Amino acid sequence: MADLTKVWPGKPYPLGATWDGKGVNFALFSAHAEKVELCLFDRRGLREEARILLPEYTDEVWHAYLPDARPGLLYGFRVYGPYDPANGYRFNPNKLMIDPYAKSLFGRLRWSDVVFSYRVGSPREDLALDRRDNARFIPKCRVIEPAFTWGDERRPQIPWEETIILELSVRGITKRHPGVDPDYRGSFAGLASPAMIDYFLELGVTAVELLPIHAALDERHLVEKGLANYWGYNTIGFFAPDPRLLSTESISGFKTMVKRLHEAGIEVILDVVYNHSGEGNHLGPTLVFRGIDNVSYYRLEANRRYYQDFTGTGNSLNLDHPRVLALVMDSLRYWATEMHVDGFRFDLAPTLARENGEFGQGSAFFDAVRQDPVMAGLKLIAEPWDVGPYGYQLGNFPPGWAEWNAQYRDTLRRFWKGDEGLVAAVASRIAGSSDIFGYRGRRPWASINFISAHDGFTLQDLVSYNEKHNEGNGEGSRDGHDANFSWNCGLEGPTDDPAITALRDRQKRNLLASLLLSLGVPMLLAGDEIGRTQHGNNNAYCQDNDTSWTDWEHVRPEDEELRHFFSYLINLRRRHRVFSRPRFFRGEVLSEAGVKDITWITPAGEEAKAEDWNNPVALSLGYVLSGAAGEFYTPGGQRDIDESFLVMMNAYYQDLDFYIPLLAAPLSWEPLVDTSQPTGLVAYRTLYAPGEVYRLQAHSFALFINRAPRPELLRRNAIATRVMPPDRAEPGEDDATPS
User: Collapsing DSSP states into helix, strand and coil, what is residue 235?
Assistant: First the structure.
């Protein structure tokens, strides 16, 4: 190591370690520390070679400049101050601290009692100071060289209404892919491989949403069981990529991935965890924030020894403090400007917007995001709930935000498994959930629609299990959700029964078709398109193994067909803007043709009435989307029109006759999709005119496109006067108008 004893005062900004081409400036915020030492390590991060007192303290920031320091230098901090947990102070200079602004980490945390600031096992618990040095067990921070050749890279800037998101784990999707170089599997380089990018393009998705890629740690109890925190929701560094996801020591692997995805027209959205850290509750390890300035970084109870926990993880970061809010905003800007990402999905987002513990649209966090010019051009997605008081805030985020819509997930799951009386709710969800998001000028894209996500059953497991099977997590299957709204189609788990298998495949097609043809932004879970299973585990956060990794080599022929169906629907949606309108439906006549933008119909081919919506046993729904009533415009600003589409949904256990409706403009209809078909697609080219019957099989979804009318088949008088005969009534309803 070069002689680094030369120390200059440096500057208090920017925070972290900053290489300026000549030397490195170090700056660390701590309002309550008494002094701070910079510790420098050898190339392997094992031996501390120098300890330098930061000589300056400006605006609560400790800082120094090392003119002889260079990128690649490994470092950490020792922070001095009172160890008084009863009053919130947990300084312990025997413990090496990770720089909160570190751009790169070297090594992984090695669990030992030494990484705790208190004597583990002491009857005084966290009040008993541990004086042992922990440096050899702690990841080291690394000074980076930020230079990277972006060339002519440009953000795709996909409009929100045209966005189709694929949620994935970088490790999980690449770890077993035969087209990815073995050296790159499980890494950003693997995700940037031609095989993966070609796959995304073939599917037709416009954005990948990556499970947390910030540096995180594996909880001790998991490591002791031979498990790991696979999902990554246990962050210890908001600026550093997780070393496990890098194929080399350089962070340029992440930038290369973004550049290649952008070249393919695919956006990159990061799932970020700013609501808590991996340090846990008062009995957790001391790794970063706790030992630097505990009372500033965390929300503490009134007695200050214990932590307020709105996250279920043991702690919550204190965004009421301006320096902590600045940390989050600096991190967001860094990933946007230096790493070129296109947006963020915020884990447990209400925690970020709590002031004095209460969620509010006028919080400092929302204000900071709204006024920031960097954030203005990015996609912002909230997980709109946490575990604190009034933690369920779906629909309550301000304009400019999209939100994960769990009501969409639960309503569509329940409908297709056969729960009755949901048609009104299903209609609202399909139409963009204006009852939730239709205020303050928000648009349908505020609703992120999904059927499955990382948290919960995969699509395959949703139709294969009635109960969760989380035994592999080592928690007695007590973890994970119980309300899955799943249906095993007659048998729990894997089966060779052809009837059950066929029904499961049909249910998957039903759910995918509903999702991809609904108004709002569809989000799909990677692997669902090829039948990925977690064997009934609905909380596979700790399964960094074959349970969670996508199995690319044992895909059934039926699931290859599902993938083609998946891609067909995505490309249909992208070709026809009637499925991704920029505004909510009004249910009114909006065109010279005299048709409504959306018309809800009954199986009788008639427009739905109040009694139809209130039918307590209804399990069917139909609607017409009018392309002529759309609000579409060409690039030149001219009003454009699209095709019209007819949808039929039958969640009953028996077949159902749907009558083709007569609208203001008589249309003939050609079926494109019928999920009762093995491929989900209709091969024949039969046209159906108003008044004709389409027999929709049980548990099926059908989609028709309008074609030129066939006058010789129109039955205007019949459809205007017909009363549906009893043998075609809704199952279980002899005299009620069906819904």
Answer: strand
SS3 111: coil
List, by residue range, all CATH 2.60.40.10 domains of the chain. Answer: 16-142
Output the CATH code of domain 162-577. Answer: 3.20.20.80
Bridge partners of residue 670, in order along the sequence: 705
Place of tokens 């894209």: 445
Q: 3-class SS at 40? A: strand
- Report long-range pairs for 728-736 (Cβ below 8 Å, ≥24 apart): 728/603, 728/657, 728/693, 730/603, 730/615, 730/617, 730/618, 730/620, 730/652, 730/656, 731/619, 731/652, 731/653, 731/654, 731/656, 732/617, 733/615, 733/617, 736/611, 736/615, 736/617
Are the CB atoms for 452 and 525 separated by under 8 Å?
Answer: yes
Distance CA 348, CA 350 (A): 6
- The mean per-residue pLDDT over the stretch 21-30 comes to 98
CA 714 to chain CA centroid, nearest Å: 47
CA–CA gap between residue 4 and residue 323 (Å, rounded): 30
Expressed in angstroms, the distance from the first to the final Cα of the chain is 77
The four Cα atoms 199, 447, 332, 368 give a dihedral, to 10 degrees, of 170
Residues of the chain with CATH 2.60.40.1180: 586-728
Contact 463, 487 (CB under 8 A): yes
What does the DSSP assignment read for 260-308?
HHHHTT-EEEEEE--S--TT-STTS--SSHHHHHHHHHB-B-TTSSSB-
Question: Hey, which residues does 702 pair with through a beta bridge?
Answer: 648, 674
Helices (H), 576-707: 610-613
Q: What would the mean pLDDT of 152-181 be, rounded to a whole number?
A: 97
Classify the phi-psi angles of 588: left when phi > 0, otherwise alpha if psi is within -120 to 50, otherwise beta.
Answer: beta
- CATH 3.40.50.300 given to domain 586-728: no
pLDDT over 80 at 592, yes or no: no
Task: Give bridge partners of residue 28 from the DSSP assignment.
Answer: 62
Our measurement of the distance from residue 380's CA atom to the centroid of its chain's CA atoms, rounded to an integer in Å, reads: 11
Angle, vertex CA 614, rays to CA 518 and CA 655, nearest 5: 65
Supply the residues annotated as catalytic.
347, 383
What kind and span of H or E run contains 56? Answer: strand 56-58
Whose tokens are 């496990």? That residue is 244
Cα 420 from Cα 2, distance rounded (Å): 73
User: What would the 3-class secondary structure string for 146-215 be?
Assistant: CCCCCCCCCCCCCCHHHCCEEEECHHHHHCCCCCCCCCCCCCHHHHCCHHHHHHHHHHCCCEEEECCCEE
CATH of region 16-142: 2.60.40.10
Q: What does DSSP say about strands 521-525 and 447-450: parallel, antiparallel, or unpaired?
A: parallel
**Residues spanned by CATH 3.20.20.80 within the chain?**
162-577
Closest CA to 235 of 275, 187, 278: 278
Q: DSSP letter for 729, please.
A: S
Of 280, 679, 675, give the one whose Cα is nearest residue 513.
675
Instruction: Give the C-alpha distances (Å, rounded to integers) separating 483 from 28, 344, 467, 533, 733.
Output: 45, 27, 9, 19, 29
Q: What is the dihedral of CA 546, 215, 258, 269, to 10 degrees?
A: 80
Q: What is the pLDDT of residues 529-572, one digit of tens each?
A: 999 999 999 999 999 999 999 999 999 999 999 999 999 999 99
Burial 679-710 (b: 16+ CB within 10 A, else e): bbbbeeeebbbbbbebebbbbbbbbbbbbeee
- pLDDT number for residue 4: 79
What backbone torsions phi and psi does residue 622 show, to the nearest 5 degrees? -140, 155
In DSSP terms, 657 is beta-bridged to 695
Cα distance between residue 511 and residue 524, in whole Å = 11
For residue 620, report the phi and psi dihedrals to the nearest 5 degrees: -140, 155
343 pLDDT above the threshold of 60: yes
Q: Which of 223, 332, 327, 313 is nearest to 271 (CA)?
A: 332
Amino acid at 96: L
**The residue type at 118:** Y
